[in-house]
């Protein structure tokens, strides 16, 4: 089971590709939701208010990926899909790639546009620091304070990451582990008397 994915942690450097007087500015942004995409696009449009087109593609998610590609007034599939093709080519997710075009007076034709948007997206991704992250499952462990040592021993033995915890008479600890270790971790806690473990829904 694949338990890692590639993404970026911070926006990449701005890149510029020129073709027959048209300028194509390429950007990459880390995103977790479609709401974030809208906010970032608004900022890019303000920054490049005199541009002709703000084309983009994004992919979000690890298990169930969602994506969208937008031509923003360019001929059908001449901008958004070439950008999305580069997201697939670099095998990244939780990412937004935007290419802003300033028209230079010379029409490029559909083939020329496809090449220009693809190249600007590729350059933007090459300038981004792509990192690998683990796909994690989250569990909620509930237990009485008297069982604290048993729970903490398993957490320490298996080197489990604690996301947050409430340690009172009734204790609650949220943990995360790589998805490939999910069954092993669940069974380790499920065997302890008076300790309940449930997977946290996304």
From TrEMBL:
<dbReference type="GO" id="GO:0006446">
    <property type="term" value="P:regulation of translational initiation"/>
</dbReference>
<dbReference type="InterPro" id="IPR001498">
    <property type="entry name" value="Impact_N"/>
</dbReference>
<dbReference type="InterPro" id="IPR023582">
    <property type="entry name" value="Impact"/>
</dbReference>
<feature type="domain" description="Impact N-terminal">
    <location>
        <begin position="20"/>
        <end position="125"/>
    </location>
</feature>
<dbReference type="InterPro" id="IPR020568">
    <property type="entry name" value="Ribosomal_Su5_D2-typ_SF"/>
</dbReference>
<protein>
    <submittedName>
        <fullName>Uncharacterized protein, YigZ family</fullName>
    </submittedName>
</protein>
<dbReference type="GO" id="GO:0005737">
    <property type="term" value="C:cytoplasm"/>
</dbReference>
<dbReference type="Pfam" id="PF01205">
    <property type="entry name" value="Impact_N"/>
</dbReference>
<dbReference type="InterPro" id="IPR036956">
    <property type="entry name" value="Impact_N_sf"/>
</dbReference>
<comment type="similarity">
    <text>Belongs to the IMPACT family.</text>
</comment>
């Amino acid at each position: 089971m694949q338990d890692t994915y590639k993404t970026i942690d911070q926006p990449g450097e701005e890149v510029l590709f020129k073709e027959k007087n048209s300028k194509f500015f390429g950007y990459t942004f880390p995103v977790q939701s479609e709401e974030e995409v809208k906010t970032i696009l608004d900022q890019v449009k303000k920054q490049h208010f005199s541009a002709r087109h703000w084309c983009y593609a994004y992919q979000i998610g690890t298990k169930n990926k969602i994506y969208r590609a937008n031509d923003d007034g360019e001929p059908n599939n001449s901008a958004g899909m070439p950008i999305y093709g580069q997201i697939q080519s670099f095998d990244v997710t939780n990412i937004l790639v935007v290419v802003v075009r300033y028209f230079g007076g010379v029409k490029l034709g559909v083939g020329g546009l496809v090449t220009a948007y693809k190249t600007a997206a590729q350059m933007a991704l090459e300038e981004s620091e792509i990192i690998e992250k683990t796909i994690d499952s989250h569990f909620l462990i509930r237990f009485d304070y008297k069982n604290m040592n048993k729970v903490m021993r398993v957490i320490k033995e298996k080197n489990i990451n604690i996301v947050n915890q409430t340690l009172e008479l009734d204790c609650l600890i949220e943990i995360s582990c790589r998805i490939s270790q999910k069954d092993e971790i669940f069974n380790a806690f499920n065997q302890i008397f008076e300790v309940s473990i449930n997977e946290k829904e996304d």
